[in-house]
Structures are given as structure tokens and as C-alpha cells.
Amino acid sequence: MNKIIILILSLLGLVCVFGQNVVPYPQQITLTNNCYVSVSPGSISISPSIQSTTFNIAVERYLNLFFPFTNTSSTSDKITLSVSINSDDETLQLGIDESYTLNIAQGSLELKSNTIYGAMRGLETFKQMIVYDVTSNTYSIQCAQIVDYPRYPWRGIMVDSARHFITKNFILHIIDALGYNKFNTMHWHLVDAQSFAVESTTYPDLTQAAFGPKAVFSHDDIQEVVAYAKTYGIRVIPEFDIPGHAAAWGVGYPELTCTCPDYAANINNIPLDISNPNTLTFLQNFFSEIAPLFPDQHFHTGGDELVTGCWNEDQNMVSWMEKMGFSTTDAFQYFENNLDVTMKVINRTKMTWNDPIDYGVQLSPDTVVQVWSSGADLQGILNSGYKSIVSFAWYLDKQVPDGNTHYEWQDTWQDFYNADPVNGITSNAQNIIGGEAAMFAEQVSEVNWDVRVWPRAIGVAERLWSSQGTNSVTSALPRIGAFSCDMSRRGIQSGPLFTDYCPLPEDLAFTLKPTMKLSKSEIKQILNN
Predict the structure, then answer these.
(1) Which of 15, 108, 145, 271 places its Cα 20 to 30 Å from the Cα of 102?
(2) Which residues participate directly in catalysis (predicted)?
(3) What is the model's pTM?
(4) Per-residue H/E/C for 212-236
């Protein structure tokens, strides 16, 4: 039986080499039989209809990615991919138009979009349409007409650099992989109990809680990350997890956190001391400094796993709650209300995990709620009118993410693929605006980040982009297998899902660095547009 399965999967691998297998699968794709465009290294140029530093970087990137094997057996006639973009507005925000059409014919390559971000998605599809034939050592593109757009406007991965510090260059490498998968959001979990790695000119002692003097993100680092992400049409959402998971805040500023000896053995138990009015002032000042570095409208304030028992043991908190007539739920409500004021000051929309609602807190109606607990909790939150992000089915650190145990651990991609955001939802599904896979990093660093995330997260990417009806694991497997090989050729350590052959360039080096480096002038231009 095992030999039969291996044979079938090997045949699937052959289909990947000779068929057209785009990931995420487009909304509409029509292939023309017996029609192919021969191409070779150096034969393709790209001509955009607008001048844009941001898009030009994407063009340069893809021109370098089209042909991983440069010593081919043939040369081809020169051909230009004409890119028509209707608007030169480079505003990147939730709901930006990412649609595109791609027409491939003999003698004509046309990509059309309304924004540069739709054009970027089209460039990724075009790259995947270029098929390398290992037998003849040649490249070709099958003639096709593609109409494509995302199912959900929020498609992301949460990157945790608080449990293990991740260097700026590796963050940029992660962004490369997100862009290849048409993710459009990097949720950056910057601070947790274990470390505080964000430079502050207002409160410089915060980074006393960094893992080391070099394990800190400067303002310049953050701006480079945001600019680089923009060249992929990726929004960067910062998360500062409060009032729980707050121990790192108290390393440089001990007055900010609670004292509770019975809970101190677990660093994750330590919350902020919100009885101290200076705590709220501190947060507002710090967020006022940091928010301009992250131009997106959304700002994640955590809110998860608050250990109220520590509040009940801290003498300052106990006295204050008695004075105010507060329960711990009332205190949590007070804190979230004050955070709402701070969000207005910095002109941001608050995003939280679902825990405050579980505690009985009434969040501001415009809060975006990220649901990590269950589909039942999601249904209640949707019914309450909150716009929601689904994450509970896509925890990349779990061995058994959805209750299904697989012989091969990588086959958990199937669980991710089958986890449609609307599974089990009976009402108010329109309040789901997307989803995020979460890579919490207690046991993950730069050394193993790629292999923990890829190729499994490809299933999440397709689930969030493609139509609800594109849901066959069997049909997706050869496409995802081929794309995983393609990602490997681009320097992402994404392994196989079945027995196949994935030839790699001899000079390929998994450097764990980005595909290109932005100059300071490019960063400035990108951020100013």
C-alpha cells in the first residue's frame, strides 16, 4: 500500500512540472490548449504604465526571480510584459484593491490592475506561470486568461520576535515569503513577558529587558521593515501585549508592573499595575512615539491571558480596586476604556485578542477582535457586531492543530487548508474580515522558522485568497507541492509534502536574508508615497 501511495504522489509531482499550478489558486483561470510562449533568461522585460519607486522595486525583484536556472538550452525572442495600472495612489490600507487580470498569448503579455498592489499580485502569478522543464532545460508559459482577486482583505501571519529575537534581515526574509504567498499583513508580536526589543527615545530603559544590546529594533530598523513590506503590498501591524504578559515593561520601569509572589514563578503571569495613574500616561506617551513608525490604521494591544489573581495579590491594586469599588473585570474594563482614549490620541483603531470579551469587558464597537480560542467564541463575537480575524485553527506551533493526528507532521497543512473561516458559522459571517496564522516562538528562532512555517502555511494562504469552493486537498496537493519547490528555489526553506524531485540551482544559498536591499533614499520615497 505504501508503495502505491508513493507512486501516486510521485505522479502528482510530475503533474506539477508540466501543468499550470498557481498558488493561491485564482478566482478564474482559462488555459489555452497547445499554446505556449517560449521564454529564456533575459528574454522578458516589464513595462509599467506609471512611475513608482515602490512598484519598480517589485519589478526588479521579479525579474531576478523568473529564471532560477540561467544556463538553459535555448534562447527566446524578446517579449514585454505590459503592466497597466489605473491609479498611482500608493496608499496601503485594509481593503485596498488587489485585483488583477493577466492575459498570456503568443506575442502578447498583459497585466492589468487598479493599484500597484494588484499588479504585485499579478507579478507573483506570472512568475508561477513560468514553468521550467528539467528534461529539456527550457522555460515556457502556457497561454491563459486569469481574473483574480482575494476572498478576504486581511490575510496574515503573526511573527513573534519577543520569545526569540529575530534580526531585521530575517524579518525581511519572512516578508519575502509572505509576499510570494499573497499574504498582505504581517502581525508583528514585538513585546512579551520575556523581552522588550523596541527602541524608545521617550523611555530608553525599556530595552533593559532586551535579550542583549544587539537584540533591539531601532526606529530605522522598523521603518526599513515597513518600507520593505510595502514593496510586497504587506501591511505591518505592531502588537504590544498588555495588560497581561507585561513583565518586560517592569525591568526598566519597575513601578509599571505588579508584585505578586505567589504568581512570580511564571513570568507570563505578571501584569501591568493599572492602579498607578502614571502607567496610563506612560503607555500613551510611548504609543505616541511608536505609532508614527507604523502607518497602518490598526494597532494591536494584546489583551490575552490576563492573570487577575496577580491583581488580587498586589497591594496597590487591591487598595485601588477597593477604593474604586472595582472587581477585576471592572478594572480590566477601566484599562480598556483608557486604551480607547489613547487610540484616539494616536489616531489608530484598536485590535485585541478575544480575551477581554471572555472576561466580560465591553470593547469599543470599532475594535477588531482576533479570535484564538474557538469557533464558538467567534460566533458570539460576530453576533456582537465586532469585525473579526480568525486564528484559532491556524496555530503553527501546535503538533495537533485541529484534533487530527498525522503520521507526517507536515500533513497538518491539510488541517489548515480545511479550516475555512466560516466553518460552523451560522450568522453574521460578513463580520469576518480575514485571518492570520500564528507562529509563537517559544521553540522557534531564525534557525528553524522557515521549516516550521512552510510549506504548511501555504494552505492558509490559499484558504484566505481563493474562493470558498476551492477546497479540495487532493487538487491542492500537487499545486502546493510545486509551489513549495518554487519557494525553495527562491531561498525559502520550504520542504516537500510527497515524494518528488525538486532540482535546485547549484549556487543556491539559504542565506536567511532578503532578496534585495533597499537604499535609504528608497526607504524614504516608499514611506512618503
Answers:
(1) 15
(2) 305
(3) 0.96
(4) CCCCCECHHHHHHHHHHHHCCCCEE
